[in-house]
Give the backbone structure.
Amino acid sequence: MPQTFQQLPEELQLATSAHVKYIQSLDTRKDEYDYWLTEHLRLNGLYWGLTALHLLGHPEALPRAETIDFVLSCQHDNGGFGAAPGHDAHMLSTVSAVQILAMIDAFDELETRGKGKAQVGQYIANLQNRQTGTFAGDEWGEEDTRFLYGAFNALSLLGLLSLVDVDKAVDHIAACANFDGGYGVSPGAESHSGQIFTCVAALTIAGRQSLIDKERLGRWLSERQIAGGGLNGRPEKKEDVCYSWWVLSSLEMIGKTHWIDKDQLIAFILRCQDPEKGGISDRPGDMVDVWHTLFGITGLSLLQYPGLRAVDEVYCLPKSTTARVLGR
Amino acid sequence: MADQGGSQHGIARTSRARTEEQRLNDLDRIKKYGELERQVRARAAAQGDYSAEVLQLTGKLLRLNPEYYTIWNARRRSLICGLSSRPSAGSSCSRACSSTTPSGTTTTSSANSSSSCSTATPRSPGRRTAGTSGTTADDDDAASHDLEMLKSELRFTIPLLLDAPKCYWIWSYRLWILRQATERLRPAVARRIWEEELGLASKMLGKDRRNFHAWGYRRHVVAQLESAALAGGSMAAAEFAYTDRMIKMDLSNFSAWHSRSRLIPRLLDERGADDTARRAFLDSELNTIRNAINVGPEDQSLWYYHQFLMLGLVTPEGRAAIAPALALADRVAYVTREIGEIKELLEDYEDEKLIYEGLFDYTLYLCRLENRQPNSDERAGLVEWLGKLRRLDPMRNGRWADLERDCGLKEGREGE
Ligand SMILES: [Zn+2]
């Protein structure tokens, strides 16, 4: 790739200002039915939008004070966060809350105005199944390696990983490995790119990458790139922009990003953007949403697209954030 | 986090501008949705409220928005207080109702003192004896009342699932209901419910053969049916036969091949297969997959399964799974035969990269088995196949370059 943005042909230009406006507009759509139907993802959505803005170099595009107020308004007495005020606490929204507060350097507000880091850490730690090591999403017990990764992500950002049984959790991940080098949602389940990301990232946080069969996994991941340049999530499935993150970040973590064609993937992601109104969709010509907007941008960031800030492949946060919080 | 729904998949991009009529229509829908939400929340806040009204209100809201997990939780809390029998351990009832005194406003006819969380005596569902809270007749009433309630919940989620087969929250709610059945009903009764669930898993997989949720769900259901809690036994043979049927319908279904790979070790152990039987099994699997590859050599799913079988010959973990007693010479003969068979494919398909990749991999497997470096013929083959791979699959040139370096083939290429 050329070093600067201006040297790129038009179809390879990222519509940065349109994307910023699109993300800013998301919370102003209260007269749209969909806005209310997606309230159960509000805190996650804020994390997706804010991370995209930071990577685009516009961290100030959402007001910091209001962001902190909203995040804290979602917290329950038990330390966990719901997706919006009045929504039950859940691992996924709790992780988003921690990630947002880390990004805008606001852990001190969590101490002074929220329930405090320790309470958040306790909420997450209580969701570990001490027998198997894995984690549930909430008190109702659904278990999934997504929740295990979320727990490791948030707890390590809070400096509280010691609250959980890391070795047991690592054993559980090892039990989710398949002959193809990938990982499934639970022991016995088929390899899936999203679950591979969660397992590889959790092993990386735990310092246990040695358990990964990098040759075999790297091969499986590189085979996710199909004609047209996009990546799919499993064999013989269609390509989708969000796999630009799950697959690519996993390749990055095991040092094999060069096993796919970067230029073709960049071109695919850019074909999925709406250059006028902003936002990125799953495939060219589809409806955009903030989820695919974030994962298109994180993908481009991993591919060193000019002008984007570097993303941390393990935490899905700006590298500047993980450097500040973790010294990574 | 992996896909949580709420994101748009496969919906065509349209002009985002709405007509005035559409905008007003949206406002109207928002108003009705908000009103319903307020009603549900007001009722849900009064914990311990199990009534037809709560079920009806949460049901209405969940039909509009099955992703609304807080409402699923409200429905669970309500249901817990409406169920008569008590789970044996880890009572989630106390968790749901501890903060308020349950009102016991159950409207169904079998409501009795035991529907109040605070006064119920914990009973083991497996050993139902007359306890302090009732007689055996009461127990039977309570059990049939609970059975009806749980069945009605299962019926409620079916149309939602058919509409949103990838919605995590519906699957998870359904599993929770089924868990209640295991904990609260007699094993024979609970078992029938789980058996019907296997039918649902098949139905969902019939509609989408690769549905990740449905395959995972099926594995979970089978594990429950096999468990001691439901007085079950192994279903490995039946499930293996199921993968047969799925594969016959669609050779490209990797989910089914994967499932097969996980069932094989148990299947062979349970059959008490001796070395001869294991060898026959391996031969038959290799024949099946080779025939499939003959028809579709471009299909990754088939090659992944072929590779699984080959790993069963060359790696210690793999060998344990299928034919641990095969002598080294036999394993060498197997790998050599597969390489020969794959070479024959080249007569019909000379531009299929997966064939060259297979030849490359398996030649290295052979060397690994014999603990030696490639001989000069093999080395020439590796160099040639790698050249084909570079030409046919330039997207993965970075990988081919690493392979060339790691296998020490660089000088060979430069020397040609
Ligand atoms: Zn997607």
